[in-house]
Amino acid sequence: MYNSVIASGVLAWLVAQIIKTVLYAVKSDKVVYERLVGAGGMPSSHTSMVIASLIAVGRAQGISSTVFGVMFIFACIVIYDAMGVRYAAGQHAKALNKINDTIFDDNVSDTGSKQNKVPKKLKELLGHTPLEVVGGAIVGIIIGILIPVKG
Predict the structure, then answer these.
(1) Are 125 and 90 contacting, i.e. CB atoms less than 8 angstroms apart?
(2) Residue 151's CB: how many other CB atoms inside 10 A?
(3) 114 half-sphere exposure, CB direction, 13 A CA radius
(4) Which residue in 129, 147, 142 sits closest to 51, CA to CA?
(5) How far apart are the C-alpha atoms of 93 and 123, rounded to whole Å?
(6) Each residue of 87-99: pLDDT tens digit?
(7) How far apart are CA 151 and CA 87, in angstroms?
(8) What percent of the chain has pLDDT over 70?
(9) According to the model, what pLDDT value does residue 30 have?
(10) Cα(23)–Cα(21) distance, rounded to whole angstroms?
């Protein structure tokens, strides 16, 4: 059983995650395997997945179909969430981590031990910049065009 919409979306997500992992490794000089499944970073795998799926639906059902219309709205919501809400949450996490670092660095006793338990760092890579979304869209377009479609 073959579903071109699922195949396109999953392959686009996988390709974006691999690209993200490689780019992160080049930038930081270390391989972080969490990047294979983690959110945030370049390119946006959420965007690549929904754009590839959108294109597959358009190719299989036509751009005037109801399914394409629903998929288009869904893609807009996912991309808006990635650039807006999740990006802002990541920026808030970054600020809170900085505040915690300041508070707990200043809270060291004479013996050099921390007086209070240091809170766990919040995850900062949650959302995407517009450039990361464009990168994800490019991956999604390429995969959506390349994957064979069966109606």
Answers:
(1) yes
(2) 7
(3) 11
(4) 142
(5) 6
(6) 677 677 777 777 7
(7) 36
(8) 81
(9) 87
(10) 6
Cα separations (Å) of 51 from 28, 66, 74, 104, 137?
29, 16, 10, 43, 6
Q: Are 107 and 115 spatial neighbours (Cβ–Cβ below 8 Å)?
A: yes
C-alpha closest to that of 8 among 47, 40, 42, 55? 55
Low-confidence ranges of the chain (pLDDT < 70): 85-87, 90, 105-118, 122-127, 151
Report pTM.
Answer: 0.74
Q: Which long-range contacts (CB under 8 A, 24 or more apart) does 54-59 make?
A: 54/140, 54/144, 55/8, 55/140, 55/141, 55/144, 55/145, 56/4, 56/5, 56/7, 56/8, 56/9, 56/144, 56/147, 56/149, 57/5, 59/4, 59/144, 59/149
CA distance 124 to 109: 29
Contacts of 125 (CB under 8 A, 6+ apart): 38, 39, 40, 41, 90
